[in-house]
Amino acid sequence: IRLTIDGLEVFFPYEYVYPEQVLYMQELKKSLDAPGHCLLEMPSGTGKTVSLLSLVLAYMRKYPDKLEKLVYCSRTIPEIEKCVAELQNLFKYYETTSGEAPQMLALAMSARKNLCINEKVLAARTGVGIDGACQKLTVSFIRAKKRMSDPDLPECPFFEKLDSTPQFELPNGVWNLSDLKQLGSSAGFCPYFVARKAMSKANIVVYSYHYILDPKIAELVSKDFSKRSVVVFDEAHNIDSVCIESMSVAVSGKTIDRATKELSALERTVERTREENAQRLQEEYEKMVESLKRTERERANDERLANPVLHGDILNEAIPGSIRTANHFVIFLKRVVEYIRHRLRSSSVLIESPASFLKDINDKMFIDRKPLRFCAERLSHLSRTLELADASELGALTQICTLATLVSTYSKGFTVIVEPADPSQPAMLHLSCMDASIAMKPVIDRFQTVVITSGTLSPLEMYPKILDFDPVVVASLTMTLARPCIAPLIVSRGNDQVAITSRFESRADVAVIRNYGNLVLEVASIVPDGMVVFFTSYTYMEHVVATWYDQHIIDELMKYKLLFIETNDALETSVALEKYVEACDSGRGACLFSVARGKVSEGIDFSHHLGRAVIMLGIPYVYTESRILRARLEYLRDQFGIKENDFLTFDAMRHTAQCMGRALRGKTDYGLMIFADKRFSRQDKRGKLPRWMQEHLDPANTNLSIDEAGQQARRWLSLMAQSFSKKEQLGISILTKDMLNEKTMQKFEKVVEHID
Amino acid sequence: VGSCGAMAGTGGELLIVEHVKFRNSDAGKSPIGSIHIFKEYVEWRDATSPSRHKIAFGDIKGQRVSPPHKPKVQLQVCMQDDGQATFVFLRPGADKEALMRERDAVKETLQQALVAHRQRVQQMTISAEKGSRDAEIEAKSKILKQSRQLEELYKHLVTSKLLTPQDFWTDYYKTTGKTEERTGMTGAFLANIAQADTNGLKLNLNTNIIQNIFATYPMVERKHLELVPHEMTEEEFWVKFATSHYFHREREVLPNPDDPFADCVKFDEEEISKLVNGGTKRKRLNFEYLSDNVVSEINGSQRPESSSTANSKDKQRTTLIRRCNYLSERILITQQQDNAAAVGGAATAAAAASSSTTNAAGPAENGTAAAAASNGVNGAPARSSGYAVLHRWIGDADDAMESAELAEDETELQLQPIKVADGTSFVVSEFAREDADRYRAIVYNFMDDVTEMEILDPSEDWMSASPSTSSHNHGHSLNGKTGGQHGGKPVSLDPATQWGACTPFVGEIRVVHDAVNELVKHFWTCFPPVTPELEAKIERMEQTLKRYEQTALAEAEQRFGAQFFAHTRDMIGRAHARYVQYIARRKK
To answer: At how many degrees (to 10) do helices B165-172 and B503-524 cross?
Structure first.
């Protein structure tokens, strides 16, 4: 149907629309009009993606000079693929209704491991391996060498063919990963480089967060995107962690050993090159100066996305003499590596600021701050000059150079933590980023609209603070429902009235663990098909499972359902998950034990029969004894005025919401959500859950015993088991074109809530 | 193994090893020859003379090997009668280790062959005990014993070869149509096996639990076959099982030669890694596929190195978790295998049932169709068909878009009415269009005839004491008109008076009536004759009726007087008339 959103005609590819989708589009339009950034929360299963794409596409068609590009960032490959599928559907709808698909280019982008079609390269299997194998075949100087002197060198036929047809351009349309691969196979082009080439020209790009947030990749793929772009971060509830992760470096003894090896290899190469071609080394320095100048010019002209690692200041400075020549630089690096090795020998924990780190390195090794800042840039130039094709050959050294550059560039927002070896882990030196806004800043500054959206962003007011930006729209939308298909229950005590909680003091208590077991048994005996139980941490789960085994609760549970448990091993977990799905699909029914913050809680959906109940055993507070976390908490308190407890609760509740949200993936879906901790009863905890969950939480259900919860669940499940059709939703949670008028929409004004 | 000089023979041998000295317990000298392992026995052949020594597997109790520090490499086969046969491995030019390898190859092959042999023997015993054939005969004779009347009928009709036993039994003995669906396996079969009480350990075991253990842990079954009853009793075996480290999933198992279940652990570990290395079929569950972050792999920041470096301590802690997963996975796999077999069985059963719908099998008992166990407790799920909604969800989860719900058809239900077809229910077969037309024509024809035809009046059933008669009439008074077609016939006399006149003969008269009833029933159940088999049966029954009329009936009429058999005559007459009509129609 064609909708009119605030005067803009929007093609929406279905005959029906949810009221919240209309409201979502309205909010989004405000933000595009401003233009400014926005934060939007809407439950998954209400069609966020399709609403967003429909509106942005309509906007881009109507005002091509105001908005040129949509960059859609998602977390996982399946999410990227689904987003592109929605887009394809939308384009098709344009074609059938207006006779012509939009003259636009949209494509998905991913790493080589998902796009490569060269069997020989794919044989490397791992992501890094495939990248390395590809670079060895495609880097320019190797190809030059092949042409000039050594025709026996292997080559990639797909890359060569693409290279020899420079006039080839990806035609307009929507290209999913599989479509790109298919094109690659049939035309003989390399899909990865086709996509890389097309990205800057494309109107819509769909890829994962890292391509824009991680400075090392953003530099390669995203830096020349137009300013008039809208950047969308979907499923963005963890965006601060992604930012922090992309800016943090951890170095272990192993890394140092590898770096030393790499250094001596590098030294040999430098020597050899000097003998063979001294000229090249001479030119190298000039080239680097030239390229830094260019970067500076571009940045001054606001043509590029800034790279947070390459700080603005160094562009104006001359490269210090101490690292100008290649062998001087190698010697310099040796000293840096030795210094870090020395630090790793420390017998006590040390936490220090970048400034004191710099002072110490200056005192001990006479290394200035200035040359350190050039490390990363200097190394990448050197590796280019020396024709080192495979970046993974310098992996450890790159890591150390990044560390050196970051530590000398930022006096704020980072901390250096040295942890001595203990039986559970080797000695580590962390350069930990504590400020998510550092990685986010270039994106926020450059692009006119940044949309941060997810099903679970509550409490919304936290994100502008920790990401340090000023959104024009902050809104939470709830889910309109024709039947109460969300059933949150807070279980606070066992049948013996002992409070259940994962508080540190009582979580090891046998009575608490037994009550948790009784709860799981009770639910397993009521709920059909699949159920998922989340634990607060992996160690706690191991402990509880062992206790339950002794108490014969595991055996009891097996009477009702098969049991599968997440493990530390990704592969084992994958297999267990698959068996879980098979058990549910076959009607056998199964129970999955999983861990909040684990892999399962982030990437896997349990729609319909795969998750008829989710139980959260305790509140998943992050492990607070971690030094990295401590440092971050202090930083947040000092810089942003966020209280330690507020942040911890915020973090625990967003993970809770994430776990709970796994079970409900649509309006026809239904699932029990059981919060098993006394502390959930308190307003300061449950008030931080997303609004769409809170609204269905009956005050009577906030302090239940196991039995009472069982009764509620029984009643509710028999209600949900009734047949349910679209007709019953019409006008309540689903609208047709005729219903889209002021009067009906007035009914839904409560669906959206703005937060100032 | 080949390098040791061992090889598989061409004459059905599993393994042949040369240069083996054979020492019998009674023989003085010990010649050198070769050892041959066959499917059912071991044979040793002298290299120089034609002398052979054969040991049947049935006589073997077990085998022993010489300890590693002994200079000779020997294998001892222990007999049931406590005798022993010792083989010494003496391959020239081979060092001790090679010899031991050779010996172990023999031992392993022999062990496997022995296990297979014992399995076969066990199966044979089981089938001999309760072969399905016997069970059927038993059931049938029981039916006959329970009803005197049926017994008489059987004697009268089957023994006299008027009816084939198959025809006779179609109505009185019903096989369920398919083999009984195996009861699903509860996941908790290990739960209550062992109970420690004050007097020590108490075991709760029944065949069902044992079956489940064997199905889930095939290695335990193998051990069972190996050890029971040759080395320990059934009881000892299970006590050992319940106290083994293997049974207690949380315990680490140390390689202990005395623990027969140490092998099981090794086997399980192998299976687990096989499962894990098999990977996932569903891409969306594969974490490596999910993530698109190559750089952080290089960067290594805040990520554990790789899972393979997890140290042994970690492994130990996760033992319980891994075994729990493995148990569930095994149960699921076993169930899937069962299902695959059941689907095959169901297909044949459905075929059988669809043909049986055409005879008088009676109406379907759809009411008994059980609702699928929602919880999967013991639930053997029927997954072959009729789960459109579920299948849509399953498909959905893999690749549907988030917004796809908006596009859904109005007609698509969210709930699935479930019909479980069990052996007793009516299978609605789908007919091809022309077949359907043909059958319909036949039925219409038949119905036409019925209205024209005079039908027996159930109210006149003066022999109503016989249940078979009443059921027969009930089944065939399709359009019964009331009213005295038999007007004024002797049947309308007061039965008591008439019967009183010939009390001693009532029994015999009755047998004749029953027999005719039975025969006529078989005749009528062939209509409408939709299959060639039924057509053939009509012919056969017509012949039988004629024969009966001329022999047994005629004889009875002579003995007791024709007035007692007017009704039977009438019934046979109608059958003949119908037959004539049928032939006439068929000729058309």
So the answer is: 90
Which among B18, B10, B74 has a CA at the least distance from the CA of B45? Answer: B18
- Give A-chain residues touching B318 at CB under 8 angstroms: 542, 567-568
3-state helix, strand, coil in chain B (%, to 5): 55, 10, 35
B78-107 confidence digits (pLDDT tens): 777 777 788 888 888 878 888 888 888 888
Q: Do B292 and A112 touch (CB under 8 A)?
A: no
Phi, psi dihedrals of residue A69, rounded to the nearest 5°: -145, 145
Name chain A contacts of B314, Cβ cutoff 8 Å. Answer: 568
Nearest CB partner across the interface for A585, out of B186, B394, B403: B394
- Name the minimum distance, in Å, from the CA of A224 to any CA of chain B: 20
A549 to B376: CB separation less than 8 angstroms, yes or no: no
CB atoms within 10 A of CB B199: 6
- Cβ-Cβ contacts under 8 Å, B322 against chain A: 567, 572
> Using CB atoms, which residue from A131, A581, A589 is nearest to B294?
A131
Contacts of A111 in chain B (CB under 8 A): 292, 294
Rounded Cα distance between B93 and A200, Å, is: 74
Sequence-distant (≥ 6) Cβ neighbours of residue B89 within 8 angstroms:
B17, B19, B20, B21, B73, B74, B75, B99, B100, B102, B103
| CB-count burial class (<10 Å; 0-12, 13-18, 19+) for B137 | exposed
What is the C-alpha to C-alpha distance for residues A370 and A653, in angstroms, rounded to an integer?
43
Look at residues A220, A216, A156, A217 and name the one whose alpha carbon lies nearest to residue A188: A156
Model pLDDT for residues A134-184, shown as the tens digit of each residue? 888 887 777 877 787 778 888 888 888 888 888 888 899 999 999 999 998
Residue A128 and residue B298: Cβ atoms within 8 Å?
A: yes
CA B377 – CA B187 distance, rounded (Å): 8
- The pLDDT tens digits for A603-618 are 788 888 889 999 999 9
Nearest CA in chain A to B194: A552
Distance of CA B294 to the CA centre of its chain: 53
Q: Ramachandran region of residue B496, left (φ > 0), alpha (ψ -120 to 50) or beta?
A: alpha
Q: Which of A311, A304, A375, A314 is CA-nearest to residue A339?
A: A375
Does residue A448 contact residue A35 with C-beta atoms inside 8 Å?
Answer: yes
DSSP conformational letter for A165: -
In the three-class reduction of DSSP (H, G, I as helix; E, B as strand; rest coil), residue A236 is classed as: helix
φ/ψ (deg, to 5) at B234 = -50, -45
The beta-carbon neighbor of A399 closest among B191, B300, B383 is B300
ipTM value = 0.87
Chain centroid to CA B290:
43
* pTM for this predicted structure: 0.74
Task: Say which of B275, B302, B305 has its CB closest to residue A248.
Answer: B302
CA A83 to CA A206: how far, in whole Å? 8
3-state secondary structure of A430: strand
CA dihedral B224, B230, B236, B241 (to 10 degrees): -30
Residue A355: other Cβ atoms inside 10 A: 14
Give dist(CA A410, CA A699) in Å, integer.
49
Q: Are A246 and A464 in contact (CB under 8 A)?
A: no
CB contact under 8 A, A562 and B299: no
Please say if the pLDDT value at position B389 is more than 70. Answer: no
pLDDT in tens, A469-515: 999 999 999 988 888 888 999 999 999 999 999 988 888 899 999 99
Nearest C-alpha in B relative to A84? B401
Mean of the pLDDT values across residues A691-704? 91
**Parallel/antiparallel/unpaired status of strands A473-477 and A38-41:** parallel
